[in-house]
Amino acid sequence: MRIAFVDSGIGMLSTAAAVRAARPDADLVLSMDPDHMPWGARAPEAIVERVLAGARAALGAGGRGEARTGTGAPSPTGAVAPDAIVVPCNTASVHGLTSLREAFEPHTPVVGTVPPIKPAAARGGPVAVWSTVATSRSRYQQSLIEEFGQGVEVVPVPCPGLAEAIESAAPRAIDAAIAHAVARTPPQTTAVVLGCTHYDLVEQRISDALGGRAEMFTAAGAVAAQTLRRLGIAAAPELPLTGGVAVLASGRPTRLPAAALAYRSGAALTRVPQT
């Protein structure tokens, strides 16, 4: 079983780690795109191009770093597709899912990411949605708030520079960006939606900066569960760790970037499979 993750950078780590925890036997392919990041500042058609390029780069990439056939369905190019493709990025999901599904489904399920506004609002408000500046202003996020807000107060909180600081694993910049967002989060907030997957990597730091008063909501667990559902398999965390992890940098085989190892999710993905 081989699962590909497509994102511009290390925002994919929390979702990939959640999948690995649920299925230690799965081979994972982390297809990053450092040559063209960040994607969020690009035009929608350019984001589609990069998402498709990331998925195509994962064709034939094995979970232990080597090219291999795997068990996936043939792709339109004749290469072997992963058994599932996951897009652990809100922006990339908004713009790229339709094109990915046209290219790979029905043989290969494609799973996107949606900010968990619905479960956060279900517990009552007020709710703050932390996201990038562009996403905070987007019609997409506003439509999610309107659809899933369930009548509670939901406040968008733009977080300038936070994703970039996390990508670089720069502690001072991370703390400064978090402080900026905390200052713009209503004091009565009881739930915070992490609307950028990068933010998952510093979830505890965000919670601590808010004084622990707000429950954190992330999408990683739900996306991992949906991936297994689409594959028709159950979670089996008790299985031995036999699945490998392959990393691609704009299509080139590589190792996890040094910044990834600063986070628990990144470190978890470096565990060596049992033989």
Automatic annotation (TrEMBL):
Its keywords, alphabetically, are: Isomerase
Q: What organism is listed for this UniProt entry?
A: Streptomonospora wellingtoniae
For the region Disordered, what residue ranges are annotated? 60-79
One Pfam family assigned to this protein is Asp_Glu_race
Q: What is this protein called?
A: Aspartate/glutamate racemase family protein
